[in-house]
Each structure stands twice: as C-alpha cells, then as structure tokens.
Amino acid sequence: MGLIASFDFSTGSVLSYDFASSRKEFQWLASVFTGIIFCVIVYRLMDIMSSLLFMRYGKLSDKQKIEWNNRGFSTVHAIFASVVSFYLLMRSDLFSDDSREELIVHRSSTFSNSVLGISVGYFLTDLAMILWYYPALGGIEYILHHGLSLFSIIQALLSGQAQIYILMVLFTESTTPFVNLRWHLDVAGLKSSKLYIWNGVALFFGWLIARIILFIFFFLHMYNHFDEVKQIFPLGYYSVLTVPATLAMMNVYWFWKIARGMVKTLAKAKAKKHDE
Fold it and tell me: What pLDDT score was predicted for residue 235?
C-alpha cells in the first residue's frame, strides 16, 4: 500500500490523496528508482575504471573528478534514451496510425512508461548533484533545463498522454555523448588531439542534424494531428506547445557556444599545422 495523489488531468490539478497499490503505480516508482540506482552504479564504476585506465584521472581536482563521473552516467543515459526512443518511434507499432483505435497522443505502453520512469530517475539524480555542487556542475540554465524536462516527462508518465512528443525530444539526447567526450578530452589535456577535433566536427553536424529531424517530425506531426493534440489535458496541452520551444531556444544557445569553440579549435589546429 502506498500514498498516491489523485490527479485530475482534465484540469491539471491534484484532487485528493488515497491509498493504492496498482501494478502501474508500482511500475512508475520502480522505474524511477531504477534510474536513480543506475546513475549511482555508473558513477561509482566511472570512478573505479577511470582510476585504473586513465593516468590523468588521478591528477584531476576533486571537483573535476565529480564532473567526470557525473558525465559518465549522463553519457550512458543519453545512449539508452536515444536508442530506445528511436525504437519506440520508428520500429515499434506503438505510434503507428492504424495499430490501435485510441488516439496517438493517448498511447503508452509498459515499456514506454518504464523508459520515461528511468529518465525521471536520471534527471532527478543529475539535478540533485547540480544543486548540491552548484555552480560547479552547471548554472541556472541547467536547473531550468532539467526542471522543464522533469515537468514534461512526469506529466506524460502519469497521464499516459503526449508520450510520442516526449520521446521525440529524448531522441536528441543522442548528441550528449559527444558533448561529454569533448569535456573529457579537454580536462585530460587532449584538446589538441585529432580525436578532439573530429569529435567536435561530429558534435556540430550531429547536433544540427538531430535538431532538424526533431523540428521536422515534431511540428509536422503536431500539424497533421492537431485535433488530437487539442484533446490532451489542458496542462499537458500547453506544456507541449511551450516546453519544447523553450528547450529548443536553450539548445540554440548551447549550439552557438559549441560552434564557437569548434571554430577556435580548428583555427588553432590550422595555425599549428602551418607553423610546422
């Protein structure tokens, strides 16, 4: 038995508290805790493996080691979220037009709920670390990004609505491993290496392609199914219209920083090659 909030998705408000022990609610909690435990395990493994495999790891400061390990579970989650999102969106029949009678925006499954729950666990863990070590792991923009992500994912998980759009956004996590590798190479003193340069190029074009794909599929799907979108509960409806746009603007800002850094790195590499 557990204390579960009864949420009215027609108005977006909490009505009452009652005791419940349904399988679905247990699955939600289990998947969230799975995400948290997964982050803790990967964080510890990163510390152990890095100390054994990378000599430079021992020379890092305590704050750098914390961020090094933090970015480790960020990378693993990004790979997991992007691969599973691609599968659910493109390979499974969950969101196929003719696979079910219910509206696409109302579709969910045990698997999709588990994926969203694990992502909630990840974002909670990462946000907790950002706040605890603030501002070492990121400033206010990271808090805003994680807060909006949690707000949207939790709504989709509890309501079972708009999951297709949440998964589209989670697919763009596919560029996060390149961002983290860029940071790891930088603090490891390998900023002038070919791997750093090629990773920067892959990050630049990968980020651009992933966002273009998201923009096309997200807004094209919303346009073609807008009558269905309007049937999402009010809070979720306005979240679908505003949160992705807000996250997109934040991503444009980060993309600008990435592009500026890549241009500087390429310019330095070209100058070095010219001097030789």
Answer: 94
